[in-house]
Task: structure prediction
Amino acid sequence: MNSFPRSAVIDGAWTSAATLRQGLYRFFGEALSPPTEGWVAVVEPAARWLDTLGVEPFAFNRQWQQLLDVLADGIELGPLESEYIRLFATAMDPSVSPPTESFYRAKAKGGGVAELQADLVREYLALGISMTGKADAPDHAATELEVMSMLCAQEAEAWNNGRLDLVSAMAGKQAKFLRRHLAVWFPMFKDHVLVAKPGPFYRSIVETAHAFLAHDADFARAIEGAASP
Amino acid sequence: MKARVFYCADDPSSASGMDEATGIENLCEEPGQLGGLNTRDGHVVLALHQGRFDLSRVQMALRADGVDPLGAQIVEMNPSRPPEPGWLGVQVKGATARGEAFPGSSPEHLKPSLASRVSRRAFLRPPAPVYTAVPLIDPSTCAADDGCKVCVVECPQEAYRWQGGRIHFNKEACHACGRCVTACPTMAISDPTASPAALLAQVAAMIAAAEAPIGIAFLCSRGDVPLADGWHTVSVPCTSMVPGSWLVATLLLGAGSVRAVPCEESGCALIQDHKAAEASAFARAAAAWAGWDQSRLPRFFAPISAPGPTAALESPFSVHGAVEVFTTVADLGGITDSLSAAGAGVGVVTIAAGVCTMCSQCVQVCPTGALLSTSRGDSMSLTFDGRLCTGCGQCTLACPEIARGAISVRSRIDPASLAGRQTLNEGTVLRCEVCGKHIAPERMLSRISEILGEEFAKTSAFLGRRCLDCRGG
Result:
């Protein structure tokens, strides 16, 4: 008989870590979508709740704590909406930094938007994820971050079930997706945003998300190796 | 920004020689105490007891307080081996200067690793990654698109791969020895824990802080070694990253003695002794060339020698610092002879003028611009500036006539070649009979003709008369 209490596994630290990462991906995905009244109301409590899941051991905690400080100072919908449009959504303005992979891929290597988006949709299907009509573009940061959030949710479930083989497989999928997409273009996106001198909120969001993504690309690979049977 | 110094005040001797430092009891076991000290955005130096602290917990505490742990300097105190009076003060002064010169890090500089394999029971333990710093390439200064592959050649772990004009870096394969940082001819590779400027600041501060001549030992951060009186340590990721010119520069800055402690002696597992040995051998040869006492570069922790001539150096630890160091040594001693030995960090390119076709492949691949091709009218020349050459040898790899000995590079300090740009080869460029544009160097077309032979004489002659655009279908 297994003397390892199931409740302890469910409350286990590794499950928490996967849940934390799942939450962080969703948090940053929401933050890089157009702000809404409902979101502005919950953003600080959401960040505080994520903090309780244990950000402290991870290297991106330094940037995360700075983000918490920014959130503690308070944010308002009106100025955030203007800032979002200025930074990410003003058509024809070369200083705008669209949060979409194809923009940075095209700058670095050339290549079509439609081709990349079609490749991404195929990749999502291979991961068992299909897009609904309400979703953002397949190469939008919010979509890619949400895909990562789903993969982390599956990893958390695998931890809960004690399936280390699945944990390793899910972590491998995360690492591969990150290295093919977010870890490649997000640093360019961050640099582009910082040139436009964003206010404290979006500056902190892109810097913290960048630190988290750079960390997670390696951390997911470390989990894949450590949990492999 | 000035660094703040904290030390573990568990034994009374801890504070010895540490001015303006704050003592905290039980700091080694409870680094979380740093959290309330408002160190955010500053530089931190920690003097902790060897073997009593957990680095990952210290790093965690610093991060929680907003401090970049890679920039925090840790000076290890060994209570079982009390240092000579003033030793700790000099180490702390050096660490403070190094911390203040910390260039900052990027999230990509970090490599997390999990201490062990995950077991079912490990579900209950929180994942606490251990972080190491790894190099990062700045694509805006990397010369890979010109064909430079110095990092690929230099890396002992084969972590770099050149493909299509880009360098691909495999973080997992990297053991962070720092060799690529000092070898990169364009300084495009950075490791914030091994910044040459920060290491220079540390060495200079330690020499300035000491009341008597000291010895500086570059020591691998993975290793440890018992020190003799008068010796101080400068921690580097691996001593194989320390070029011979750094050892000579350390003496010029005023150290009595200097050495790069080999891996075998320090117990470092990377075992890159051949490279460290090459640097030390070169530095000894340079000392002999300069007429200095060679015992200043001992093979073991010998008594500290008296300092020799000193000089103010601007950036002796940069990639072109070797030139600054050796021109200074030559000027101080009035030396006009050259010194040939492996590991100089300075190269002299020679061309076999009759064999070189002036195709300029060497110019294209030269990452520092030491080799240049210039044309005026129908004549062209290949020039070389020894002050820019690091002896990386990329030109020899690119030369299509290397088998015939068209080009060679020697690791050599030659005061004559450091005097300025000189012409290595000259020739003429043929013009197109149709449009008048330049076709190619005459020597190159002659060589093509030679390779094609009599059978294709007409083709060769045609190639020499028409440019690519005017050759038709």
